[in-house]
Amino acid sequence: MVITLEPATDFHDKMAGMQRRTTCTRILLAVSGLLLSATVSVSAQGITPTVGGIELTPSTSNPAPGQSVTITARCYSIDIYSANLTWTAGGKTIEKGIGSNVITVKAPALGKSLTVNISAVTPSGESLQSSLTLTSGSIDMIVEPAGYKPPTFLGKIPAAYQNDVKIAAIPHLANSAGTEYDPKSLLYRWEQNGEIIEGSSGYGKQSLVIPGGMIPRPYVISVIVSTRDGGAQGSGSTAINPVAPFLKFYKNDPLYGPLYETAINNALYLSTQRETGVVAIPYGFNAPAAGLGDLNMAWMINGRSRDELVSNQTVTLRAPEGSAGSTAIDLRVTSKRSILQSANGAFRAVFSAAASSS
């Protein structure tokens, strides 16, 4: 569809702002870096306490390899603050003193274990002791929203309103020999906001799909991964915060197609090339990979609706001969099926009277 441009009544009118909201998923990893569309917390295997007269409480129950773990000792049968305490880790004394009931140690490497012991001697000579064993690992969380993006677009988009979201867990749990377990042989317990998702949990269920809801509230997906015998266990979580889908414009080159490396922001200048194609990309909408599906494209030229363009994702702009000015291009995209999905976009096409660079 070709649109012949016409000068707006006010060349210096402000252009309607184009909103673009994104959600960054940062993944905190213990072993390797992985970038995702959400805030993620990662933890891994477990801490096995040994029964004793002193209660040992770690700062995390599933540390990642090399993570600092603070261990606090408590006792309800003696005054631990007046007792002479001795801490050992891996057979070596790491802390000693009266009332020294808090220490920090590093979690062992993947597949290894670290035993931490504490002994207490009271002023009256009473002796108590306890220990726990630290192991480590990590869980990577991968978030894949189902919203539309161009097939050649290499970036990642946030989860939009009413988008389905696929989440996969990549566990790194190892046996004592350092060999990682096959993810398909592990048990997965998925939770949404602390409530177990029964149909998606079980043996080998490494991923799940969260349907897009009518009420776009943030939610947290967490998973506990373990071996069948419970000897190794890890957990991870990711926060999903749905946002509105957004709209971007790009030049549509007749030879190379859409030029995604540079979006049209406030203005598109027509210089010696008096005609150019423009494509509107509805990021995050529930649209098919090809075509518009049930999306409605409401184009406006200088404030006037162009109903004949309602099915057009691409338009051709043509500058008039012998006149200079700018034309306001506005577009509102709505979905007939996903009523919460809509976006506005706008820019100005600027042209000069002569066929020279503006």
Explain how this protein is built:
The protein is mainly beta and 358 residues long. The protein is 0% helix and 47% strand. It is built from no helices and 27 strands. Strands 2, 13, 14, 15, 17 and 18 form a 6-stranded antiparallel sheet that branches. A 5-stranded mixed sheet has the order 1-25-22-19-20, with no helix packed on it. It has a 5-stranded antiparallel sheet with strand order 3-10-9-6-7, with no helix packed on it. It is elongated, with a radius of gyration of 30 Å. Mean pLDDT is 83; it is low at 10-51.
List the helices and strands and how they pair.
Blueprint: E1 2-4, E2 39-42, E3 47-50, E4 55-58, E5 68-74, E6 84-89, E7 92-98, E8 102-106, E9 113-121, E10 127-135, E11 138-145, E12 165-172, E13 187-192, E14 195-196, E15 202-203, E16 207-210, E17 219-226, E18 233-240, E19 246-253, E20 257-264, E21 267-270, E22 275-283, E23 295-301, E24 304-305, E25 314-318, E26 325-335, E27 342-351
Parallel strand pairs: 1-25, 21-27
Antiparallel strand pairs: 2-18, 3-10, 4-5, 5-8, 6-7, 6-9, 9-10, 11-12, 12-16, 13-14, 13-15, 13-17, 17-18, 19-20, 19-22, 22-25, 23-24, 23-26, 26-27
